[in-house]
Specification:
The complex is a heterodimer. By secondary structure, chain A is an alpha/beta fold. Chain A is built from 14 helices and 22 strands. The chains are: A alpha/beta, B alpha/beta.
């Protein structure tokens, strides 16, 4: 038996915004025994549009009109959405009214998907998953490092065998310096560009024209900054202008911290608008005309194809480079739980913006368990706790469940608040039963099992379909 | 379209009182009471006939029966139709009498012995012609007189070709039915198994799926998927989803491509009507619908597909006292009415209660092929086995070598012999190609041309057809590596695509055989009662099966309590009792109980549900729960029992939890009767299966079981009635 569901990805970047809608079926995989998404087919893909910015603010009315059009063309209905997400990225996320745009999306789609802004590690993760997760799985012995270079930020993600290991984010992008198309005549400068101009000694502002040498200086700085980040060269990155450009430091892998301990050279891939330009050129397409998009994207792309990275760029091709984030949102932002959950109050779902306040393991002391429970109880609508049992052993589950039950009883967890335990093993129902003393404890508990323990600040738990629930993480810590 | 003779226009002599048949054998007079007994005694001894009390012990008695049979004329068999248990000629027997009168007239006065000699002496066309003048009983009687050489020699003279998009059964050909079964009808897994089979030159007879879910929606989706795969690959073949005939007719009405119509047949009306839910009337309607509306009606000469196999009538207890070979021949007599495109035989599928070992299976297959060909149907073969029998892969391979010599039209292609849905072992595309090469056979001509065009087949310098450069590479049909990985991820029991010649590479074969070995050991293992008692004290009870062999070979014994245990168990005022048994895998009990049982007992105690001291019953079958529930006067038995292992070693540790709810309350029983339509219903069943570390982990299963117990006791219902109630109340159903 299977059920049809809808997935939606909405990406509002510094330069462009786009939407993708897909439909699939939730079906049981006979190999893993898990329910997963089958027959996923894209049913709508929008054109790439420039993100409407007026006076350094997002043009809310224009975005709202476009959003409504996409939802109509994609046949999106909130009650059918199982997962996906809407993400404001790059400089768009830093606009003053970014939060209003999030509200605007939520007003249309409710809590059916995550809608968030300024979540750089999530962006990096999504760009990796959306562009080169598949490639990475074909190179299980090699780390893949993806640079998602957009208009405002470059999101770095290092992964192996399809799993992201490290992320980082830098304010390096095509659109910090906006130009009149066909020229280097400056139209607008971001605050990061102004700082960079000061650092490079470029004494120019809006309405001036950059010389070839100045353009080369800017591009070289960006390239060197990213190269330093990839190599973990903190000497360069410690310099004040570089520090300003560093939103989340990328901690590269050393040979000893590599999962396989070999520390081979990474396979470099690109995504985002700049990545798309690079791969188009490598496929033999001519470069667009000078500053055709009114920014430095083409110049950045040119720099990469003359760099030592070009061998990798020719050899390793990610999928959907230009739409990596939106595809990541669509296909990878939602985890599917196991099918035997402890869910006595399914009417409480969906739960959005649930803070994840800690992790309980078999090694946690009773005092720690008690503190986590107390902290969860203090959150206004309740909270999530990660639980790491580490096995399916009945005695271990029983012992841990009884300890959590004792903490709940002594801490008098507020009965109106939800406590969500997120556990990676298939022990949802049994853990829930021991935690509630087989239903005797009055607590609004749900145990969602078989979801990966992601290092995130928030989770969204959707409504059950086919005995599973969708779980999305955001506010990724690394 | 052939004209179907109305049943009332088929002349059949009235049944006569049973007579005895005697023969003097040295100093002994050996007597058989009736024709059914005589036919049973004349056959090779097989488990099903032994269990039915029809086989004889010694060679002397068997040969005595054969001697008597040899001297009976065909007219005698014609005049003595085998009656059902009510003394009537059933419709299956009646259809068998729709014979060619001129062919029968020419041989009516021959004895069966003379007929056998005549068949051995005659050219193939004459044998084929005479076969149209025989009933199933006559063909079965001749088969019982034949040795292995004779079963092969006569059968190989008979051509029974058929034609849809491809032509099957032409001289020098050996075809195959691609059988891409998947435990959940996952279209990705089905696609991968089709790609793999096609890449090895399999599927020229059919791409035919046995569905896991027999609904119009699912069968339609599977048919449309197979149609897409057939079109995209360009393979000249035909498709079929082997659901119930009624489901397929509903699909046909919707315009879904039902190219070939399938139905399982049995050799007695009682089995067909009450177990298979079919009748001759229904089959007649189905045939006419296909002739009028079937998508291949303009190009196919035949479009019906039947599956049969020795022993189904016996296992349902509806064999009318007739032996397995004869009831099987009656199936072919019924199939012949519809001039089928394919008939295949799956003798060996049921288990040791019908065919104990390779010898019994091989002989039965040779008999079946002989009888089918003689009676006029295009026989394909599927010599197969389950792990709880003593039939082995090697026995199966011997059967295929002999059956290929006998001229079987086709075999199955089940990837690496392992059926991922039905948990049994059939022939594979590797086997089909190996047999083609050993016996100088080719696929159907239309398919061979396609195989050349794809590089699956090629010709060497001598013009001999060989495997081509793309043989065995399933990736040639996919669109990308990513798609291929997706298909792989959805397909169980894949051990590698590497081949060595036409065979799987040794590494692959070793993995397949190791998994089977572990499965067989799990079945043969004895319950470790003392170890289990350490988890929690249990009461050990006994069934009527005293040994493992008796338990495996006679399912009925394990469903009954021993006299001593019956005395021991007395009514208790407890709602729930826990019963544990090895079933078909003691290892499943050993591996799961340590984590499952403590959770289950904790949960029942936590919910304040009264439960007795658990019962442990070595050699138990599922139905054992009923006498236990009655003896203890329990409302509900939670029965934890080992599942029948398939081809996956880990899954041979898989346990099922049966919830057997006794309908003690009169009002509840009334509701159950109403819901089920079964006036005699006394129990309702719910089952949660796949409990093992690779499926539902045992600790989690313990909690799931407690929840289900609560549901059953609260709603006073189990099975479909409970699920309907839960659906109505909006509760999430537990996966089963």
């Amino acid at each position: 038996m299977s059920a049809a569901v809808q997935l939606v990805g909405l990406d509002f970047g510094t330069t462009t915004m786009s939407a993708v809608v897909a439909e699939g079926r939730l079906a049981r995989n006979a190999v893993t025994g898990r329910t997963d998404l089958d027959s996923l087919e894209e049913c709508y893909r929008s054109e790439m549009l420039f993100t409407p910015i007026v006076d350094d603010k997002i043009d809310e009315a224009a975005v709202a009109r476009q959003l409504d059009r996409w939802l109509e063309l994609g046949g999106v209905r909130a009650e059918r959405i199982f997962g996906g997400g809407a993400l404001l990225t790059g400089l768009t996320a830093q606009r003053d009214n970014a939060a209003l745009l999030v509200t605007l999306i939520r007003a249309r789609l409710g809590n059916a998907l995550i809608a968030t802004a300024d979540d750089p590690c999530l962006e990096s993760w999504l760009a990796f998953m959306g562009s080169c997760a598949e490639l990475s799985r074909t190179l299980p012995d090699r780390c893949v490092l993806n640079l998602d270079i957009g208009g405002g930020t470059t999101n770095l993600a290092l992964g192996q065998a399809g799993e992201v290991l490290r992320t980082g984010c830098y304010f390096v992008g095509a659109r910090h310096v906006q130009l009149k198309p066909g020229s280097y005549h400056i139209v607008r400068l971001s605050r990061y560009a102004r700082a960079l101009f000061d650092h490079l000694g470029i004494r120019k502002d809006v309405a001036a024209t950059l010389t070839d040498g100045e353009v080369a200086g800017i591009i070289t700085y960006y390239f060197d900054l990213l190269t330093a980040a990839l190599g973990g060269d903190r000497r360069i990155l410690a310099e004040p202008t570089a520090r300003l450009h560093e939103q989340v430091a990328f901690r590269t892998l050393t040979p000893s911290s590599s999962p396989r301990g070999r520390g081979e050279k990474f396979a470099i891939t690109l995504s985002g608008g700049v990545g798309e330009l690079v791969y188009a050129h490598l496929d033999g397409k001519p470069w667009p005309a000078t500053t055709a998009f009114g920014d430095l994207g083409i110049d950045l792309a040119r720099r990469f194809v003359t760099s030592p990275f070009v061998d990798d760029l020719r050899r390793y091709r990610p999928a959907s480079a230009g739409r990596a984030t939106v595809y990541g949102l669509l296909r990878h932002s939602t985890e599917i739980s196991g099918s035997t959950l402890y869910l006595p109050n399914p009417e409480m779902l969906p739960l959005a913006d649930m803070p994840i306040v800690g992790t309980i393991t078999l090694m946690s002391s009773d005092a720690d368990v008690s503190e986590w429970i107390a902290l969860a109880g203090r959150c206004e609508r309740g909270a999530c706790l990660r639980v790491n049992v580490g096995s399916h052993d009945a005695a271990a589950v029983r012992a841990l469940g009884m300890r959590i039950a004792a903490a709940l009883a002594t801490r008098s967890f507020p009965s109106a608040r939800a406590l969500v335990l997120l556990v990676s093993e298939n022990v949802g129902k049994v853990l829930g039963q021991y935690v509630t003393r087989w239903g005797a404890l009055a607590v609004k508990l749900m145990v969602i099992d078989e979801v990966p323990p992601r290092n995130a600040q928030y989770a969204r738990i959707g409504v059950p379909r086919q005995q599973v629930v969708p779980v999305s993480y955001y506010g990724l810590n690394e | 379209m052939i004209a179907l003779t109305p049943l009332e226009q088929i002349p059949v002599p009235a049944p006569k009182p049973e007579r005895t048949y005697s023969i003097q054998c040295f100093e002994r007079t050996i007597t058989f009471a009736g024709l059914k007994r005589l036919l049973g005694a004349a056959d090779y001894s097989k488990a099903g006939d032994r269990n039915a009390g029809l086989a004889v012990d010694g060679e002397t008695e068997r040969e005595a029966a054969r001697a008597i049979l040899s001297d009976l004329t065909l007219e005698h068999l014609y005049d003595h139709p085998l009656a059902d248990d009510q003394g009537n000629v059933d419709t299956v027997m009646r259809v068998n009498y729709a014979i060619d009168p001129s062919a029968f007239g020419a041989i009516a006065t021959m004895t069966l012995g003379e007929l056998k000699d005549h068949l051995l002496r005659s050219p193939g066309a004459e044998v084929a012609r005479l076969g149209r003048g025989l009933t199933g009983v006559m063909a079965a009687a001749v088969a019982k007189l034949c040795d292995v050489h004779e079963l092969i020699y006569i059968a190989r003279k008979i051509l029974r070709p058929s034609k849809a998009r491809t032509q099957l059964g032409l001289p020098g050909t050996l075809s195959s039915r691609l059988q891409p079964n998947h435990p959940a009808d996952d279209l990705r897994g089905i696609a991968l198994l089709c790609y793999w089979g096609l890449s090895m030159g399999a599927g020229d007879a059919l791409m035919g799926l046995n569905p896991a879910i027999d609904t119009v929606e699912n069968v339609s989706a599977c048919l449309q998927h197979l149609d897409k795969l057939r079109r995209s690959s360009g393979a000249p073949t035909q498709i079929c989803v082997l659901s119930h005939v009624k489901t397929q007719l509903a699909c046909l009405e919707r315009g879904v491509p039902v190219e070939i119509l399938f139905q399982s047949l049995a050799g007695t009306d009682r089995t067909n009507v009450s177990e298979f839910d079919i009748s001759v009337d229904l089959l007649d309607r189905a045939y006419r619908s296909m002739a009028e509306k079937g998508p291949l009606r303009d190009i196919a000469k035949q479009f019906m597909y039947f599956e049969t196999g020795q022993g189904s009538e016996f296992t349902y207890g509806k064999h009318n006292g007739i032996d397995m070979t004869t009831t099987e021949a009656l199936c072919y007599g019924l199939a012949r009415r519809y001039d089928p495109f394919m008939v295949n035989n799956v003798t060996g599928f049921i288990g040791p209660e019908t065919h104990l070992d390779s010898f019994e299976m091989v002989l039965a297959n040779l008999q079946d092929h002989f009888m089918g060909k003689l009676l006029g149907v295009p026989m394909g073969m599927a010599p197969c086995y389950t792990l709880h029998s003593h039939i082995t892969l090697e026995g199966q391979q011997m059967a295929t070598e002999l059956l290929t010599a006998a001229g079987a039209n086709y075999y199955m292609d089940v990837g690496l012999n392992t059926d991922r849905m039905l948990a049994y072992f059939d022939t594979s595309a590797h086997d089909d190609q190996t047999l083609r090469e050993i016996h100088h056979k080719l696929p159907a001509p239309e398919y061979l041309d396609w195989g050349f065009s794809r590089g699956i087949f090629a010709r060497d310098g001598n013009g001999t057809v060989t495997r081509g450069p793309t043989w065995g590479d399933p990736r040639q049909f996919g669109s990308s590596d990513a798609e291929f990985r997706d298909l792989l991820a959805a397909t169980p029991a894949l051990y590698g695509f590497e081949s060595a010649g036409p065979r799987p590479a040794n590494r692959v074969s070793r993995a397949v055989k190791m998994n089977q070995g572990v499965g067989r050991e799990a079945i043969r293992a004895e319950l470790r009662v003392e170890d289990l008692q350490k988890i929690t004290p249990m009461r050990v009870i006994r069934t009527e099966a005293n040994t493992k062999e008796a338990h495996l070979n006679s399912p009925a014994l394990g469903a009954r309590l021993s006299a001593e245990s019956k005395r021991m168990l007395t009514p208790e005022t407890l709602a729930v009792q826990i019963l544990i048994s090895d079933g078909l895998s003691a290892e499943a009990v050993h591996y799961n109980m340590k984590d499952l049982l403590p959770v289950l007992l904790d949960g029942l105690a936590g919910r304040r549900i009264g439960v007795g001291k658990p019962l442990l019953a070595p050699y138990g079958r599922v139905k054992l729960a009923e006498p236990v529930a009655e003896a203890l006067d329990a409302e509900l038995i939670v029965y934890l029992i080992g599942e029948r292992p398939g081809g996956d070693a880990l899954a041979s540790r898989s346990l099922s939890a049966y919830f057997v709810y006794q309908l003690k309350n009169a009002e509840v029983r009334r509701q159950a009767v109403q819901a089920s339509g079964n006036a005699a219903i006394r129990f309702e069943y719910t089952v949660i299966s796949n409990i093992y570390s690779g499926g539902l982990p045992p600790a989690e299963a313990g909690a799931v079981i407690v929840e289900k117990v609560g549901d059953i006791l609260t709603h006073q219902a189990a099975g479909n009635r409970l699920e309907a109630m839960l659906k109505k109340s909006g509760s999430a159903a537990t996966p089963e």
